[in-house]
Amino acid sequence: MNLIKITAVFFLLTTASFAEDWVKILGNPPAIGSVEEMMDLQYLLELQENRTEGECEEARAEESVTLKSLFGGKHGPLSDAEVIENTFMFYKYLVMAGLKTKQAKKFFKRQRPFARFPNQIVTCIKESSPNQSYPSGHTSIARVMAYALSKKYPERRFQFFQKADDSAKYRMIGGVHFPTDIAAGKKLADYLAKIYF
Predict the structure, then answer these.
(1) What is the pLDDT of residues 128-185, one digit of tens each?
(2) Gyration radius (Cα) of the chain, Å
(3) Which CA distances in Å does 20 have to 16, 23, 26, 107, 188?
(4) Which of 140, 125, 155 minimizes the C-alpha distance to 47?
(5) CA distance 110 to 171
(6) pLDDT at position 20, please?
(7) Is the pLDDT of residue 34 over 70?
(8) pLDDT per residue over 79-136, tens digit each?
(9) Distance in angstroms (rounded) separating the CA atoms of residues 141 and 137
(10) DSSP characters for the chain?
(11) Cα torsion angle, 103, 143, 80, 5, sign
(12) pLDDT at position 128, please?
């Protein structure tokens, strides 16, 4: 059996009885034109005004979701050898958490900041699917992986969750997620962690 088949079988066995009520789990995103949506926008505009090219470079470096981009490299808590050692575990959780995140995104269909406010939000990273903002997939995947890595390396728990939070912030700096998308991504990860761990 190859890696994909093993992961798919594991996923089906662990989530077969797992029918989600996305509104109950995550709550609804802010309504269009609401005070909460305007607060989301204001926060992003402040980030946009103050972001540096270095922050945009960091955000671009994490566009592709890999164990090395999220937790390895020069700023990550994992060594190159640990990245290699934990790659299978990463892809297992990437598939599991990624699928659940995709289902929630398709349910809510929230526009991304650059699509909702095209005359105000300027991205500094690649613009992805314009109607899949809520919840943030990078956030949920990074946080689920922080749980998995913390189980294996408990002495670095703080570092893993700090790096997951940094990854989430880069999605806002890049202009592709609202703060409430990030909060929902964390909430989804916490929900999944109770099932997976």
Answers:
(1) 788 899 999 999 999 999 999 999 999 999 999 999 999 999 999 999 999 999 999 9
(2) 17
(3) 11, 9, 10, 11, 11
(4) 125
(5) 15
(6) 76
(7) yes
(8) 999 999 999 999 999 999 999 999 999 999 999 999 999 999 999 998 878 889 999 9
(9) 6
(10) --HHHHHHHHHHHHHTT----HHHHH-PPPPTT-HHHHHHHHHHHHHHHH--HHHHHHHHHTSS--HHHHH-TTTSSS-HHHHHHTHHHHHHHHHHHHHHHHHHHHHH-PPPHHHHSTTT---SS----TT--SS-HHHHHHHHHHHHHHHH-GGGHHHHHHHHHHHHHHHHHTTS--HHHHHHHHHHHHHHHHHH-
(11) negative
(12) 79
Q: Determine how many CB atoms are found less than 10 A away from the CB of residue 117.
A: 18
Task: Report the topology of domain 32-196.
Answer: Vanadium-containing Chloroperoxidase; domain 1 (1.20.144)
**CA-CA distance, 181 to 127, in Å (whole number)?**
16
21-30: b (≥16 Cβ within 10 Å) or e: ebeebbeebb
Q: Which two tokens stand for residue 131?
A: 């109607």
- Check residue 20 and give left, alpha or beta (phi > 0: left; psi -120 to 50: alpha): beta
